[in-house]
Specification:
CATH topology of the largest domain: PH-domain like
Largest sheet: 4 strands, antiparallel
Shape: elongated
Order of helices and strands: EHHEEEEHEEEH
CATH architecture of the largest domain: Roll
Oligomer: single chain
CATH class of the largest domain: Mainly Beta
Radius of gyration: 21 Å
Number of helices: 4
Number of domains: 2
Distance between the termini: 16 Å
């Protein structure tokens, strides 16, 4: 069992939920106006849950830093986990914050095509994790996070504990 040093789910903002449900309700109302009987309420039953499901799906990404729990810990040691991707902390060379003002540059001309990127439009800051692994062609990970200072601190703590 590994201890959780940092965990965050990158949920979509509340106003996206409001907008998605409003658009779904508007589309359902359009169909309702032109169709009697079953077809009048069926769009509401389909489109509103569909809009909610899309918002849940968009906000499913979890960013975690897992440390060793001492006895019984995983053989991989501390991990940086983003969604289903796992990165052993032992291959991290350095970690840096990317402020929201530098996000477009980091994702634009400066982006290495071989980099691992987990970008969420609604989250401005990011964290840059530079790798030092000769077996991996990925030069770095670029990950959206609302609290980059906490992610950097957790990764540095996990690196120091190994």
């Amino acid at each position: 069992m590994q201890s959780v040093l940092y965990s965050e789910r990158l949920r979509v903002p509340v106003w996206w939920w409001v907008a998605a449900l409003a658009v779904a309700a508007l589309l359902a109302a359009e169909v309702h106006m032109g169709a009697p009987g079953l077809r009048a309420w069926l769009p509401y039953v389909i489109l509103l849950p569909l809009a909610g499901g899309v918002m849940l799906w968009l906000g499913r990404l979890r960013v975690e830093v897992l440390g060793d729990a001492g006895n019984g810990g995983s053989s991989d040691g501390p991990l940086f986990r983003v969604g289903d991707a796992r990165l052993p902390v032992s291959v991290i060379a350095r970690v840096a914050e990317v402020p929201g003002t530098a996000k477009s540059a980091a994702l634009g001309r400066q982006l290495d095509p071989a980099a691992f990127v987990q970008h969420r439009v609604w989250v401005k800051p990011m964290v840059l994790v530079v790798l030092d692994d000769p077996d991996d062609p990925t030069p770095y990970w670029l990950v959206s996070t609302r609290k980059p200072a906490e992610v950097v601190a957790a990764l540095e703590s996990a690196r120091a504990s190994r």
